[in-house]
Design goal:
Elements: H1 2-20, E1 47-52, E2 57-62, E3 67-72, H2 81-84, E4 90-96, E5 101-106, E6 111-115, E7 121-125, E8 131-136, E9 142-146, E10 151-155, E11 169-172, E12 180-182, E13 187-192, E14 195-201, E15 210-217, E16 228-230, E17 236-240, E18 245-249, E19 254-257, E20 268-270, E21 279-281, E22 294-296, E23 302-305, E24 311-316
Antiparallel strand pairs: 1-2, 1-24, 2-3, 4-5, 5-6, 6-7, 8-9, 9-10, 10-11, 12-13, 13-14, 14-15, 16-17, 17-18, 18-19, 20-21, 22-23
């Protein structure tokens, strides 16, 4: 009996001590070291696409295990040494064409459409001016946002010549950081400064043009719009600025407040279907650096972390019905 009472007392004391301890952040998965293990892409269950700048590569990570499912550097596509430099500091990678390709931009000046199966560059160019985002248009052409170039550039994709030397059309957009195609409305969206711009595309593949249709103002105090990404399953997009994160309701044409662990300097937001967390990238490296070794959810819970990684943006490797048809092929 005494032994039983002693066990109860010890359990009570342990419980009391645990209540006094400060509860740490919930970490659903935390690797113990920087070791990279691999998994076949077709065996991975929830895949994130990371722009990993320490080694100038695109990395697909199976989030539940932390294993590398696929990776790409410019050398894998047989580009020349000079062309490989265009893909230093990759800053966006998004899945396109039913997830058979990845559309990549890099601060080194390049944009490329990479076929996942064999890592072939189906299209590549050098827009320059710090390309930060790209999008596939309905006719296969590619539009690129260059931030320091203050420019949107449209390149004609013809399927024959992978390298395209110059754009067929350019449009000035201050500090252009993002582009998203809206299939329902047949328009292109881009956020700049404290505005969201709605652009019309003429649909002429060999003579493309973009024109501004309308602008939507964010609340006063916002500057330097950065990321723009569709919300999976909704007629909406997330948009981030230096100060805030909003959800833009495309039907109501309204900016909605968003609950997120950190409002400022969010580099990317990505959503997936049911069962997927919304993943967020923000710089944690200190100083003037802009990368992090970890990917979090909207509450700040760590979903992935690897020592030595310098991640700029993270996207889920999922379909995008907001922008593309159910069957989307080259």
């Amino acid at each position: 009996m005494k032994k039983y009472l002693w066990i109860l007392a010890a359990a009570f004391l342990l419980q009391a001590c645990s209540k006094d301890e400060e509860e740490g952040p919930y970490v659903p998965w935390r690797p113990g070291d920087d070791k990279e293990e691999t998994i076949d892409l077709d065996k991975a269950t929830k895949v994130m696409i990371l722009t990993e700048q320490a080694k100038n590569r695109i990395v697909m990570i199976d989030q539940p295990t932390g294993k590398v499912a696929w990776e790409w550097t410019a050398a894998d596509s047989g580009l020349s040494a000079a062309e490989q430099a265009w893909f230093d500091l990759p800053d966006e990678a998004k899945p396109v064409y039913n997830r058979t390709c990845v559309l990549v931009t890099a601060s080194g000046g390049g944009v490329a459409l990479i076929r996942i199966a064999d890592k072939k560059a189906m299209f590549y160019a050098k827009p320059g001016g710090n390309p930060h985002s790209a999008e596939v248009l309905p006719d296969g052409n590619v539009v690129v946002a260059s931030s320091t170039g203050n420019l949107l550039s449209v390149y004609v994709y013809n399927g024959a010549d992978s390298y395209v030397s110059r754009p067929a059309f350019t449009m000035p957009v201050h500090s252009a950081h993002n582009v998203v195609w809206d299939r329902k409305r047949g328009c292109l969206w881009t956020a700049t400064g404290a505005q969201l711009l709605k652009l019309a595309y003429n649909g002429k593949r060999t003579a493309p043009e973009l024109t501004q249709v309308r602008s939507y103002d964010m609340a006063a105090g916002n500057t330097d719009a950065h990321d723009l990404a569709p919300v999976c399953g909704e007629d909406a997009m997330y948009v981030s600025t230096n100060q805030h994160v909003y959800k833009f309701d495309c039907a109501a044409e309204k900016f909605l407040d968003v609950e997120i662990f950190q409002q400022n300097t969010i580099k990317s937001i990505s959503t997936g279907p049911e069962g997927y967390s919304t993943i967020v990238m923000r710089p944690t490296s200190g100083g003037s650096n802009w990368w992090s070794a970890e990917v979090c959810d909207m509450k700040g819970n760590r979903l992935f972390n690897r020592a030595g990684y310098q991640i700029y943006k993270a996207r889920w490797y999922v379909e995008n019905p907001f922008g593309y048809p159910e069957v989307h092929t080259l």
